[in-house]
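pinned: reference chain
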Amino acid sequence: MPHVLDLRGLRCPLVLIRARMVLQALPPGVSLVVLATDPEAPIDLAALAADTGRSLAQTRDEDGAWRLTLSL
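pinned: its structure tokens
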């Protein structure tokens, strides 16, 4: 089951910092789903995914929020 982190309303670099902290604390094999409204979030989390060897899937809701999933 993925871990969901709701960071809507936060701006760069807080989205990246908090996602990195939570990702480090997750058990192996658990995906992290980040909900964010910051337009830079997909770019920042793509870099985080590359740094940690994870894949990144992204979708955008009708309200403009991003749903970014980091998984192994």
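why pinned: The helical segments are 14-25, 41-52. The mean pLDDT is 96.
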